Automatic annotation (TrEMBL):
Protein name as it appears in the record: Glutamine amidotransferase domain-containing protein
Classification via Pfam families: GATase (PF00117)
Classification via InterPro entries: Class_I_gatase-like, GATASE
The species this protein was found in: Mucilaginibacter galii
Bilayer-crossing regions: none
Domain Glutamine amidotransferase: residue ranges: 35-219
């Protein structure tokens, strides 16, 4: 890599709390691939936020905050949660000042739920049963004009894996905070339950999804074919649904398209902003 180019520093916030996962590998693979394709002097550092209470300062240019297990409500008031939101507040304060390029943050699943909890954008609660699989995500009117979705269809397909959810958007609070709901869960006419909020632009520089835009077919397949996960899916959804999940992994217009679109579009947007400042 050439060293005469301006360095772009990315902080990856690991919220998996030491639990084995595919998400971190996928995030780092996307960053590495993006760096190579665009021939950038781009570096990254991983911070173990929950397990080791590691939180960066504001010296990075871009932040990607991962998914993770557990209840997004119960961590409120813990050391790591407080430190995490001290960082988010500091980044927001920086962005509102005139000091240098703005800092862009992407929030995935658990991180998205934490942000919704903090901003009061909807109800955070436990699902009746976990949502898991390659599922359609529907774009809202605001989402039609969102750059990170450029190149996707409506609906597009993404990996959904959550026991907790954010539902019942508080439209007044969204408006008050300058946030916009970009995507919602698939409609289920036979189920009288609210549709989850699947993507929100929190402000000009902060954006997040309740699904996993980083997920790739390799990681999803590795997860699905474990005996435990296969049995869980079959028990919950049936053998045919399990087979359909595996087949969807091979469709280039489903999660493969989402993986190569959303986070790269976010990085495009963040780096363009960084270079223009």
């Amino acid at each position: 890599m050439t060293t005469d180019k301006q360095e772009i520093k990315v902080a990856v916030l690991d919220l998996y709390n030491g639990v084995a996962n595919q998400g971190m590998r996928c995030i780092l693979d996307i960053i590495a691939r993006y760096r190579e394709v665009n021939d950038l002097n781009l570096t990254y550092k991983v911070f173990d936020v929950r397990q080791k209470e590691e939180v960066p300062g504001t010296e990075f240019d871009i932040y990607i905050s991962s998914g993770g297990p557990g209840d997004p409500l119960e961590s409120e008031g813990t050391v790591w949660d407080d430190k995490y939101f001290e960082l988010i507040d500091a980044l927001e304060a920086h962005n509102q000042s005139a000091a240098g390029p703005k800092k862009h943050v992407f929030f995935i699943c658990h991180s998205f739920q934490l942000m919704c909890r903090r901003m009061g954008l909807g109800a955070v609660n436990l699902r009746r049963s976990p949502s898991f699989g390659v599922l359609p995500v529907h774009v809202t009117e605001h989402g039609l004009f969102e750059q990170i979705f450029e190149g996707l269809t409506d609906p597009f397909f993404a990996v959904d894996s959550r026991s907790w959810q954010v539902v019942n958007a508080d439209n007044e609070q969204l408006k008050a905070k300058g946030a916009a709901l970009l995507a919602i869960e698939k409609e289920r006419p036979h189920v009288d339950l609210p549709r989850a909020l699947m993507a929100i632009r929190f402000n000009e520089c902060f954006i997040g999804t309740q699904f996993h835009p980083e997920a790739d077919p390799f990681g999803m397949r590795a997860y699905l074919i474990t005996d435990e996960k296969k049995q869980e899916v079959v028990d919950e959804h049936g053998e045919q649904k399990y087979i359909e999940m595996l087949e969807r992994l091979e469709d280039p217009d489903m999660i493969m398209l989402t993986e190569i679109t959303i986070i790269p579009n976010f990085l495009d947007q963040a780096i363009l902003s960084f270079q223009e400042a």
